[in-house]
Amino acid sequence: MKNQEISDRFNEIADMLDILGEDAFRIISYRRAARQLEALTEDVEDLVREGRVASIPGIGAALGEKIEEYVTTGKIGYHEELRARFPPGVLDMLRVRGIGPKKVKLLWQELGITDVETLRKAAETHRLRRVKGFGEKTEEKILRSIELLKEGESVFLLAHAHAVATMVTDYLRKRAPVKELVAAGSLRRMKETVHDIDILATTKDPRAVAEAFTTMPGVREVLAAGESKSVVLLDAEGRFIQVDLRIVEPGSWGAALQYDTGSKDHNIHLRTMAQKRGLMLNEYGIFRDDSKVAGETEESVYSALGLSWMPPEMREDQGEIELASKGATPRLVEDGDVHGEFHVHTNATDGVDSLETMVDQAKALGYAFVGISDHSVSSAVAFGLSAEKALARRDRFRELNRERKGFTILFGTECDILDGGQMDYSDEVLKEFDFVIGAVHSRFTLPIKEMTERINAAVRHPYVNILAHPTTRKIGQRDPIQVDLDEVYAACAKAGTAIEIDAYPDRMDLNGPQARAAKNAGCTIAVDTDSHAKDHLAWMHFGVGTARRAWLTATDVLNAWPLEKIRAFFR
Ligand code: DGT
Ligand code: CA
Fold first, then answer.
1. Which is the closest atom of ligand 1 to the Cα of 263?
2. Domains of the chain
3. Considering only CA atoms, which residue is closest to atom 15 of ligand 1?
4. How far is the CA of 270 from the centre of ligand 2 (A)?
5. Dihedral sign for Cα atoms in the order 145, 150, 154, 160
6. What's the half-sphere exposure (Cβ side, CA atoms, 13 Å) at 256?
7. Most buried pick, 110, 179, 228, 480, via CB within 10 A?
8. Using one digit for the tens of pLDDT, what is the confidence trace for 47-82?
9. For a pocket test of ligand 1, which of 157, 182, 186 has the largest count of ligand atoms closer than 8 A to its C-beta?
């Protein structure tokens, strides 16, 4: 779909106008249109063909024309004109956290810096401090941001890699005679970031499958093409992701799947166990002397080692093998156990879809309830609601609960935790909500002691029910805050405040190991998507994956409980 391509161009136009110091209103209208396009589920090409571009909310005539222009010619003239006014690399500098349009302009005009690499060198050699508003601290921050950016460039977020892998496997199922077909590796283990996509297949016709794989749409380079292994670079939103396809004999399917799923540490542990039993384990099977004793299924491989099968998400050599040797692998929480969530935004603050749209999408997912939690007043960047505006919505929630029979809409808020640990709304306001999520959105650099006290003050607050994205990290953009998580887990467990796995793709906060520690400290965990558009609700799958990486069962997960029990927990 061209939706994303046009959205990217609109965002870039907004960036360029911003650097040029143009009218703020125009900039906002481009940004808003970019978000709308990104969230749009219909194909914009269909809308153009049917003359319905004007039906996209927030898109006026001028922007509509640009959309049509892109769909018919593959370019936007205005975008190209603006681009010609910038040296290549200038816009990349905006990806460095802390560098906004105004700083880009200063750096470009005063120091002639027009790309990230030169910026890095200038920070290293302390040239930046010559510019007004830049000091030693800013230089350090910029260097760290550039490092983070580089780290982020070598990995893909789970949700994005998963979308690419699904595209590839759907394509192969349609176009080639594949039998078994699974994306293994870190993706199958639901790791929050992955380096590449490892696909395994069985087939009667390896040549046809390899041919379909190496010629599928989006392939930019074929690094290897063979009947047992092919490797391609695939275009994924302007970056390249490596996709490996290995074709294996049906008799080795289980062994290959087990091997390629990993993790490496898990595999090494299994191999040592095999050796102790006089067996040899590799990706073709388990062998005693030269005869094969297992390999057709994953179960057979584990069973030959005296182990029960275990979910891929657990395979990190963190005690799961010992558990399986006792047959004590727990039944982990599953997608189907979750029947609602709490962290959902609407266009009343920084979401793109309306309250009704978000509610109906949650209903369509088969949920029993959804909690809506728009931002509080201090979240200026997120258009936070004043207390009056927030409470004024309550009647609409009551009405909506009557209209959507058999479905419950919980009236919530994502309330900022202010610098000293106070909440952004007064107690009189907070008590009016069905539930309150506390969240840090500012002052990320407090020292660890103050930060821990700040967060725990909110955790202990009688009206706060859930602590959102506890470390506030953003993968590839922002380091986690300095906070003593063990103290936070202990406070949550004691206060009866749930702690969140925020499944927004670049957050994944808490991550698997952290959520496991939280569970072990006695916490209840809420798995949320932090949705800002209706399609985001589907990210629950990755939140549940992370919960499984934390070994959580349905009992540990607040949104897998019956609604009445959840209400009691909130009270
Ligand atoms: P990543 O970095 O996101 O691609 O993570 P993985 O886990 O997908 O790692 P990758 O793609 O390097 O390898 C895929 C699987 O192959 C890995 O999960 C386990 C297995 N594997 C890789 N290297 C070794 C090794 O040295 N020994 C053993 N036993 N297995 C390995
Ligand atoms: Ca991999």
1. 18
2. 1-85 (1.10.150.110), 93-153 (1.10.150.20), 157-247 (3.30.460.10), 252-325 (3.30.210.10), 335-570 (3.20.20.140)
3. 260
4. 19
5. positive
6. 22
7. 480
8. 999 999 988 887 888 999 999 999 999 999 999 999
9. 186
